[in-house]
# Entry
Amino acid sequence: MSTTVKSKVIGIDIGVKNTTIAVVDLRGTILAKDYLSTTDYPYINDYAEALSERIVMLAEANGGYEAVRSVGVSVASANYVTGCIENAANMPWKGVVPLVALLRDRVGLAVAVGNDAHATAMGEYVYGAAHGMNNFMVISMGHGGLGSCFFSDGQPHLGHHGFAGELGHCCVEDHGRRCTCGREGCLEEYASARGLVRTARELLAASDAPSQLRALDELTPEVIAQCCEADDEIAKEAFSRMGFQLGLGLANYATLINPEAVILTGEMNIFSKWFLPALEQSFDEHVFQNIRNHVKLLVSDMDNNERDVLGASALAWTVKEYSLFK
Amino acid sequence: MSTTVKSKVIGIDIGVKNTTIAVVDLRGTILAKDYLSTTDYPYINDYAEALSERIVMLAEANGGYEAVRSVGVSVASANYVTGCIENAANMPWKGVVPLVALLRDRVGLAVAVGNDAHATAMGEYVYGAAHGMNNFMVISMGHGGLGSCFFSDGQPHLGHHGFAGELGHCCVEDHGRRCTCGREGCLEEYASARGLVRTARELLAASDAPSQLRALDELTPEVIAQCCEADDEIAKEAFSRMGFQLGLGLANYATLINPEAVILTGEMNIFSKWFLPALEQSFDEHVFQNIRNHVKLLVSDMDNNERDVLGASALAWTVKEYSLFK
Amino acid sequence: MSTTVKSKVIGIDIGVKNTTIAVVDLRGTILAKDYLSTTDYPYINDYAEALSERIVMLAEANGGYEAVRSVGVSVASANYVTGCIENAANMPWKGVVPLVALLRDRVGLAVAVGNDAHATAMGEYVYGAAHGMNNFMVISMGHGGLGSCFFSDGQPHLGHHGFAGELGHCCVEDHGRRCTCGREGCLEEYASARGLVRTARELLAASDAPSQLRALDELTPEVIAQCCEADDEIAKEAFSRMGFQLGLGLANYATLINPEAVILTGEMNIFSKWFLPALEQSFDEHVFQNIRNHVKLLVSDMDNNERDVLGASALAWTVKEYSLFK
Amino acid sequence: MSTTVKSKVIGIDIGVKNTTIAVVDLRGTILAKDYLSTTDYPYINDYAEALSERIVMLAEANGGYEAVRSVGVSVASANYVTGCIENAANMPWKGVVPLVALLRDRVGLAVAVGNDAHATAMGEYVYGAAHGMNNFMVISMGHGGLGSCFFSDGQPHLGHHGFAGELGHCCVEDHGRRCTCGREGCLEEYASARGLVRTARELLAASDAPSQLRALDELTPEVIAQCCEADDEIAKEAFSRMGFQLGLGLANYATLINPEAVILTGEMNIFSKWFLPALEQSFDEHVFQNIRNHVKLLVSDMDNNERDVLGASALAWTVKEYSLFK
# Structure
């Protein structure tokens, strides 16, 4: 009989550029961190090898296998059900990558993977704004795209194959903007960093109203927000339209889910000042009457640097302990 | 200690015109039926009184309280969570009607209520096309409107207040057709008996192409379908547009839920021949690629006369047994 | 998109001597049956081969793969979690037998296995005395031994490794009778066909009271029950002691679980007349006061010939559909 | 729409003598504490009034109703399902006390109650040794008695009426020691502070072996443990017998539940040095072979002063938010 309680997990955030590896205790305290360049490893085996080394080193420096229970990974296009990264658009590794198997065999610990939205939702549920809620939606507005994960009766709804929550690929305009996914009119092309910039460009092209944006070579959410601060009408309109489209998309989503709360997370949150008013107005206008005024709209206050690894650590606790020797 | 197994429930379908009361055994066999006119009782207390009498008579004729376990009711705008009919558009009784309390106190049995879509989904899960599925969507296309209920991990997702699944009130066209709910652009105004007729009228007004529909005083799904049989282009186009809009709405829904199946039920199903091809094409075109070709689109083959009381009986089994004397 | 609903499953009961294979529809109607001798196949591969052939033949005769969804198997010592028969005492195949893998690869359908008690409990939940209950205990009193399965909140409790419910191997007497499992004092040695016979023998040896049992070469539950009919005191005492021990065991079990009902199933049920009074008295005496008089003690009225294959068919619906081609 | 996240709850431990009230954040940090004498209020209404005042004061001092979400209470004989204290043996208030209703109406916040074992298990699940486990047993060995709570598939198993887990009232000896509950042979009379003292007295009476215990007027676990330190054979034997009986009881329990871990908590834990070796040996000897060596036996390392209010705070998060104004 064992008498040791394993009270730590490894939470990993695989970003497009960098990978963050953290040791997290069961109350969400980050005890140690390490980093790896994601882009240095065009071959997944090399990456898995390098990442496993870092995991083992970090585990050993923090109590070893006696103290560390399991590993959770947040990465774009990951599927919790299959344990694979599946056709990630922005990652170096194409096709279906069996990340759980690759890591578990090397590290000797149970591993869970989830996409950004799933991991973020787990983090908000365990350590954040969704604590105590059973039915809620988490909207993940990263630079890369627009994801979501909702909880049904206290559990993340993953769907039959683990693909649920693809809010960014709901069609909001028939034959609308061409999306990176190949289809047209996806919400992501309107309500994301990319969509915001497209909207700004369209607005600039559609009128000759003066705008500081005209002088800029490259448009980004950051510079558009700066122009908003200078009261630039086109910049403000671009954010408003994003808020409108997202508000409509969330209204339909909420009409289907009837959540206790809609929680906005992700890097785009820092611009919420500019899109939230239009989002709220559009949400109220489009959501079914039973639900209007009965949904909390929350902007996550979780630290951007902690959110992903905390969410990944929450995933880590959901897998059964695993040992080669049992 | 009791040694009797209660093997029957009462399933009730409260329709706009008629109420059907059935005794159903645990394998879904309807053992006896009785009827009541819904419209005869403008006051809910009178209705509850009359319905309770019928329930008690039917129970006593089928084994009595030793054999009958509980009561389930399918009725528009019912909320399983609160036990109330909440602001039903087409029922004689306005506002919030505490139907569970009204019946339970009179009948002395546990009572569950659910709206059409919820009851239908329970019926499909227990006795129909969804048996064995954990994640699926049931679309209820009645004459009155368009409802839905999806299951998450083997349980109906009811949402924080019990209002989930209002597919008919998802906005599919900003500033679109005015809906009975007061808002604009609700899917129900395009994909329902009412929506179909509106579309046909718009098509007739927009061209002067010949159509048998022009000669008719009143348009209904039935006559439009008859004209389809006669190869009437406008009639066929009306159904196609309904299929297109519903296909788009279901594609977005499925992109969020990732169901094993989408199951079409309800009175409009008999016309599926005319709208299903456009629905399928639109669904395929608009659903996220991960999900396309991985969702079963099923048309329920459950008998229209049995579906609602069977669904209601399935609801009956979900409540705890209740007795005044325990 | 598929538009076919798979409405049948294969339910299989692997008994010590015979295997029964049945096609069961989703309302629990047995549509067809076939049989196989279990003992003819000392090697598991031969058995799996022969069984698979029968499954395929039966499936093809009943609608084929378009209609048949999956396979469920009830067999002693099966573990639903691992899909294996694990160290069955009375089966021809020793050690750990990966039955799910052996059948699935041959048959091309999803397969579930469960031990007798698990399958029986599923059958009672879906088609029998436990329908509508969320927390209940099913006690399986076969000739071979004493098993159990309880439901927690509407789901069978299988435990961390799938071994839960081993009521027969709870110790009721420190250093008591030697059990086939190697330990001493297991309840199975007192409350089973084998235990009953041991008790009768002990009673015969302990006194010289007259008894018809003394003239018999072989004691069985059947002959002991026959002697009870003839008012044989020792025969009646043997059943009473079995009832007493089982009542005590169930009282402790119910004190831990607080079930809505305790449901007795299995071949020994036909003798319940002789052990149930003592069982009830002992249960009432030993169960915690909060629970006494609040538990239904039910004797299953499910047909012995149907029970196992119905339970197996209920298991079949719990696995995800599987196809080599998806 | 609200944009505030409620990140604190009130956790309350109602002990026989004292009541502790704490503000706990969602990561389990105790932010503030207050105390109340339990025994000062022989009438429950007075107690509820006084307690509510303290709750409101503490809430207001820690962010008010904007920040405090709900209240959780750990108290002997509380039933989460009914919200009542039910016939507590050691509390000043007899019969059934509707504590949830009494507090909620006064405080205006949602309130949950659970008995010691339930609250402790929630605490271990969220903040302690059971984090990440789905199936485990928590054994609560307080001075007052012996309780337990097990989790099934990630949820506490409460049973049909909320009474599950009464390990202390499992009968371990037919016609054994008279229990405070009125029955005989309850495990609590052998494996608790009271049981230990009874055993020591029996051992002293049964022999005239020398023992320091003979000189003492009053026996307590503390003095018996002190004698163990002095190598007193009778003191050591008393603890050993307690370990043996508890090991047997836990072995039967684990044979039914198949837990990942058995976690010992409560005030008696400080004496585990003296009873754990016998407990482990007895457990190994009596547990079913499939489970032996596959269960972690863990002694909780949660701080005794924090355990109960943390467990109560974990309960607080399980209830829906409540407001008089929604």
